[in-house]
Specification:
Layout: E1 4-6, H1 12-15, H2 22-33, E2 42-44, E3 50-51, E4 61-63, H3 83-95, E5 99-104, E6 114-117, E7 124-128, H4 169-185, E8 190-193, H5 201-209, E9 223-226, H6 232-243, E10 250-253, H7 255-266, H8 281-284, E11 289-292, H9 307-314, E12 320-324, H10 325-330, H11 342-352, E13 357-363, E14 366-371, E15 380-385, E16 392-397, E17 404-411, E18 421-422, E19 428-433, E20 437-444
Parallel strand pairs: 1-2, 1-12, 2-5, 5-8, 8-9, 9-10, 10-11, 11-12
Antiparallel strand pairs: 3-4, 6-7, 13-14, 14-15, 15-20, 16-19, 17-18, 17-20
Helix pairs in contact: 2-3, 5-6, 7-9
Region (Disordered): 411-434
GO molecular function, one term: hydrolase activity, hydrolyzing O-glycosyl compounds
InterPro entries: A-amylase_thermo (IPR013776), Alpha-amylase_C_pro (IPR015237), GH (IPR017853), GH13_cat_dom (IPR006047), Glyco_hydro_b (IPR013780)
């Protein structure tokens, strides 16, 4: 698989005194993150369009086609920069072997220029938009309730913002124009759809299936991941709905797994057998899961303790792992040139975390799994130890007889270097991990 970087956090440009300069700042980091650096395969960027107010994160879209070049809403640039700077950033992303993922906020709008009365229900709402870009001016009939869907409002409403009616051909067409601009003109490689509960799965299916004329790639199909913040059954139903409409691979963020990982990190004596119950997207649909330990929406529910336990899990197990910028940079979990950080786990992911996943052992305090390997990746043994005061491991049956294993990534409450391990003629071997820690062992084929 691959590894994604979430290239922002909430109020990142404000927090780092880079309002209007985030694209330029991220561009300077890409060579370190890309294929010739740490090895990230893609980066998810924040919303690119002009929001309703100066300094917003863009999740309050006002003018979809103003990428920071029109003086409106108290600003010229967006919080992150302008179009030329964004295009330069995407070029640098591609030069370094990475893909660029665009954040699509197509459920709701904000910052209307005037209030209107909706003749269908007599209610007044802020639905008159006259954007400076001159594109996608809209009125009450572009929102719910509209003449196109006045009885049933498709999807949930977000934060009281006007809720776009995608069944209006004007809205439907504008969303196509926006997606086409992102892929064809700006050269993005995929979409992350925000709050997909807010509109029909058919809309994502159609935007994913559209035949984009991607630069130098006539057979292009965008990567698509949706934010469906719910339990595994609801997410599974949504994935089924989208998959019926497209041949593209559609993924979902694995919120159920994330909450388990928060408990692993923050809850004393959490039973690690909960990681084996199958109640996650990655367990049921490993090729449709984007796994994560933290993201920008987790304010008030952040992982507080031992966060590397969560990262060790997502970077060795099934799914497409996503690393949070704030953890990597601001909280110092990258730990370059060390076996104890995210960089070492990304390396282990690329070199070893391939092939079939198999749980070899699980009890309340110890979890051991195996990746069987493939032509390009050797496979690995992953050990997660929940005990806070001692190294712990046990003998497990692996697929590799008479094989030497070396530790390639580890962390925990003991700084001692793990020893090499070996399996016997039957493939059995003992694999330990540090207290409140993990260890990734890779087979050595001699």
């Amino acid at each position: 698989m691959a590894v994604m970087m979430q290239g922002f956090y909430w109020d990142c440009a404000k927090e780092e005194d880079k309002l209007g300069e985030w694209w330029n700042f991220v561009a300077g980091e890409i060579p370190k993150l890309g294929k010739k650096g740490v090895g990230f395969d893609s980066i998810w960027l924040p919303p690119i369009s002009k929001g309703a107010d100066k300094g917003t994160m863009g999740y309050d879209p006002y003018d979809y086609f103003d990428l920071g070049d029109f003086e409106q809403k108290g600003q010229l640039k967006t919080s992150f920069g302008n179009r030329a700077e964004l295009e330069k950033l995407i070029g640098i992303i591609h030069e370094n072997g990475m893909g660029a993922i665009a954040d699509m906020v197509i459920n709701h709008n904000s910052g209307a220029d005037a209030e209107e009365e909706n003749p269908l229900d007599g209610e007044k709402r802020w639905t008159k938009f006259t954007p400076a870009s001159g594109k996608f001016a809209r009125n009450w009939d572009c929102f719910h309730p509209s003449r196109y869907e006045k009885v049933m409002m498709e999807g949930e409403q977000f934060a009281g913002f006007p809720h776009l009616c995608h069944r209006n051909p004007k809205v439907y067409g504008a969303m196509y124009d926006y997606a086409r601009m992102i892929i064809e003109d700006l050269d993005f490689d995929g979409f992350r759809f925000d709050f997909v509960k807010g509109f029909g799965a058919w809309m994502i299916g159609l935007l994913a299936k559209y035949e984009y004329q991607k630069k130098n790639n006539p057979n292009f199909s965008p990567f698509v991941v949706g934010e469906y913040w719910s339990g595994p059954e609801d997410i599974g139903d949504w994935l089924d709905s989208v998959s019926k409409l497209t041949d593209s691979q559609i993924a979902a963020f694995d919120f159920p797994l994330r909450y388990k990982l928060k408990d692993v990190c923050d809850t004393p004596n959490y039973d690690l057998r909960n990681l084996t119950d199958g109640n996650s997207v990655s367990a049921a649909r490993p090729f449709n899961a984007v796994t994560f330990t933290e993201n920008h929406d987790m304010g008030g529910n952040e992982v507080v303790n031992d966060k590397m336990l969560g990262y060790s899990f997502i970077l060795t197990q099934d799914g497409y792992p996503c690393v949070f910028w704030k953890d990597y940079y601001n909280f110092g979990l990258a730990r370059p040139n060390s076996p104890n950080g995210i960089d070492a786990l990304v390396s282990a992911h690329h070199k070893h975390a391939g092939g079939e996943s198999c749980i070899l052992h699980a009890d309340p305090d110890l979890y051991i799994s195996q990746r069987g390997g493939n032509e390009g990746q050797s496979g690995l043994i992953y050990v997660l130890n929940n005990l806070g005061n001692q190294w712990s491991g046990t003998t497990v049956q692996t697929k590799w007889p008479n094989t030497r294993f070396v530790p390639v990534a580890w962390d925990g409450k003991d700084e001692a270097h793990p020893d090499e391990r070996s399996t016997d003629a039957e493939g059995k071997g003992e694999f330990p991990a540090p207290p409140r820690g993990y260890c990734v062992y890779a087979p050595v084929f001699e």
